[in-house]
Write a structure and sequence with these properties.
Layout (H helix, E strand, L loop, with lengths): L1 H26 L5 H16 L10 H14 L8 H4 L10 H19 L4 H9 L8 H11 L3 E4 L2 E4 L2 E4 L5 H20 L24 H11 L6 H4 L19 H6 L5 H6 L1 H5 L6 H6 L8 H9 L15 E10 L8 E9 L5 E8 L6 H15 L3 E4 L4 H14 L3 H6 L3 E2 L2 E2 H9 L2
Parallel strand pairs: 4-7
Antiparallel strand pairs: 1-2, 2-3, 4-5, 5-6, 8-9
Helix pairs in contact: 1-2, 1-3, 5-7, 6-7, 16-17, 16-19, 17-19
Length: about 425
């Protein structure tokens, strides 16, 4: 075991040395920061982090690679490497975060191709201090470091929002994992000036940068990553006067340039709405452009994940029923705050209608989940039903999922246009997919 660990460390150091060389090459390329982030996550991390999801690596080992990533993105040595990989690019560019995502993908891949090992993996998730630490145990330890708690049966919880490690969608898992990573970042940056009371960070997928010019984006990036560009910080790195170089009246600082410096008074006139509400903004937003999450956002997500799955009484008869199903979503463009709902309505013979079930979609919010849940409610209600729908995703997505999971010949299943034997697509989904 000792020789094996030494050999793994040697191979890892060789890979990380090569990754550092690639990062140094990326640093000198005339590319945008967003393009560099995609290049790092798709070209450097797969090489230097190969096998990192199955290795015990401490925080001191991660830090040099994280610092080189921040330097490759175009920041100087005075920035904070945690903030440089979070607050300046749409993707989170951090080696440890990428290793956690790779561990999740590996566990899901094992569950897909070797389902006989799912029980063993769930057992490893529940052990807090395992004797032998493999891929599953290392992933569980890293998730617990991000304040995730294991509830059993493959379900992990973070502040009331729950995911199933094998059945939840990868996009939803990554969304909640990013929230937990931002909470982890808050604990790492509270020692910095103006950030002592930071409790949360809302990235908003950097949509608030879309209307800024290139120079304004660069200024916001250097401000949000903790770059030391004022004289009150530069005095620690050389013989620099703490006086403001623009007005020569007061000590230089970030808040001085925003609030008091006469040189920047024309800039304050360009944004009257912002500076009229300046006193009500939190300190982390004024000094570092790090906006907190909306109030009670944790409770909002917790309530959405606590919505129970709809229960519908089964109607046992052989008559053909007609049902209209539909799903809707408010603020579909913004995944952080969108809310989706569903409705299943039975069309009666006299021309009227009756609502079978309607309500909010539990868990992940999207219009496609609303469409699928409405169709599922209809087949839970009737034994023989014809579903009328307004969008194709309500049938295309269940067909794709059902085919990939339960059918041995996808091409034959698709040629039947939604039929599997003598059962319709929705009955097959209910009988097999919902068990």
């Amino acid at each position: 075991m000792r020789y094996s660990l030494k050999r793994n460390a040697k191979v890892r150091n060789i890979r990380w040395t090569e990754g550092s060389r690639r990062l140094a090459c990326i640093e000198n390329l005339p590319l945008s920061r967003e393009f560099k982030s995609r290049l790092i996550t798709s070209g450097v991390f797969p090489q230097c982090l190969h096998g990192a999801e199955a290795e015990l690596i401490n925080e001191r080992t991660w830090f040099p690679l994280r610092a080189k990533v921040a330097k490759a993105l175009g920041f100087r040595c005075t920035r904070n490497p945690y903030l440089a990989g979070v607050a300046t690019t749409k993707r989170i560019v951090d080696p440890l975060f990428t290793a956690i995502l790779n561990g999740l993908r590996l566990c899901r891949l094992i569950a897909k191709h070797a389902p006989q090992h799912i029980d063993n993996m769930m057992h490893c998730f529940g052990i807090e201090l395992p004797r032998y630490k493999g891929t599953v145990a290392i992933l569980a330890e890293r998730l617990r470091n991000l304040q995730w708690s294991y509830e059993g049966d493959g379900i992990w919880d973070f502040r009331g929002a729950r995911i199933h490690i094998f059945m939840s969608s990868p996009r939803h898992i990554q969304f909640l994992l990013e929230r937990s990573w931002l909470n982890y970042i808050c604990d790492k940056i509270r020692h910095r000036k103006y950030l002592g009371n930071v409790s949360s960070i809302c990235r908003m997928n950097l949509r608030h940068h879309s209307e800024l010019s290139s120079s304004q984006k660069a200024l916001v990036d250097f401000q949000s990553c903790g770059e030391q560009f004022t004289n009150d910080a530069k005095k620690y790195f050389g013989d620099v006067s703490p006086t403001c170089p623009f007005c020569q009246n007061c000590d230089d600082s970030r808040l001085h340039r925003f609030e008091e410096c006469t040189f920047f008074q024309p800039v304050r006139r360009e944004f009257p709405l912002l500076f009229n509400n300046w006193s009500s903004l939190p300190m982390q937003a004024k000094a570092c452009s790090l906006w907190p999450e909306p109030p009670m956002y944790d409770q909002f997500l917790c309530l959405l994940h606590r919505i129970p799955f709809p229960h519908v009484d089964r109607l046992e008869d052989d008559n053909l029923h007609i049902a209209f199903t539909d799903g809707s979503c408010k603020w579909q463009k913004y995944p952080d705050i969108r809310i989706s709902s569903f409705a299943a309505i039975e069309v009666l013979g006299n021309g009227s209608s009756a609502v079978i079930h309607s309500g909010l979609v539990p868990g992940q919010q999207s219009i496609y989940r609303g469409e699928i849940l409405a169709g599922t409610v209809a087949v839970m209600r009737f034994h023989h039903v014809r579903i009328l729908r307004t969008t194709r995703p309500s049938s295309r997505l269940p067909r794709k999922s059902f085919t990939a999971t339960f059918c041995n010949s996808p091409s034959t299943f698709l040629r039947r246009r939604g039929t599997y034997g003598r059962c319709s697509l929705w009955h097959s989904l209910r009988n097999h997919g919902l068990k």
